[in-house]
Amino acid sequence: MANTSDISRGLIIKLDGSLYKIVEFGENKTARAAAKVWAKLKGVDNNRTIEQTWNSGDTIYPIRVERKNFQFLYKDDSGYNFMDNETFEQIVAQENLVDAPQFLKDGQEVSVLVNTESDTPMSIELPDKIVLKVTYSEPGMKGDTATRTLKPATVETGATVMVPLFVNEGELIRVNTKTGDYVERVKE
What is the share, in percent, of the chain residues with pLDDT greater than 70? Predict the structure, then answer.
């Protein structure tokens, strides 16, 4: 058993029969009443985002989760196929479990959060930043580096990323998978 003092960012708890990941939390203290603990929760097994408030010291029900390294193999009609790097076991996950499916490429290393009670995958996270090759982009003009003007570029996974004008087709770029933003150009 755990209580509200054990709340931390990233903790997965069971609430009303569903699993939620704690995104943000805080405490409200007043002079007259007992302290309250609030949390912003994102559904793991559903797409809901809710806010919850508890009295300080209330019981919460955390779920034990393991983070395992998997490799993305391919996508087919059944979903996204991943392989465990240690046991070579394969799992199939639906698109809603993958945090940025548009940036998945064959052989990509990902972290899979596995519920240890039911041994089922709960979410699949890509690394924060990945390197992708630009497959299509309008050519940039010489001297177009003074302003922060962006243009669309298609990367090897088929996703579109807004890049600065000086990025050309065939170059490698680093992309933030959480926001989908261009970070920097990568030298080969």
Answer: 96
Given a contact cutoff of 8 angstroms between Cβ atoms, the answer to whether 40 and 23 are in contact is: yes
Residues 70 and 119 in one domain: yes
Q: Which domain holds residue 112?
A: 65-125
Residue 142 confidence (pLDDT): 64
Considering only CA atoms, which of 134, 124, 41, 49 is closest in space to residue 79? Answer: 124
Domain boundary among 79, 105, 125: 125
Stretch 25-33: mean pLDDT: 85
**How far, in whole angstroms, is CA 162 from its chain's centroid?**
19
Per-residue pLDDT tens over the stretch 15-24: 888 888 888 9
CA 72 to chain centre: 15
**CATH code where residue 143 lies:** 2.40.50.140
State how far the Cα of 65 lies from the Cα of 68, in Å rounded to an integer. Answer: 10
Domain of residue 29, CATH code: 2.30.30.30
In sequence order, the 6+-apart residues with CB closer than 8 A to the CB of 166 are 140, 144, 145, 185
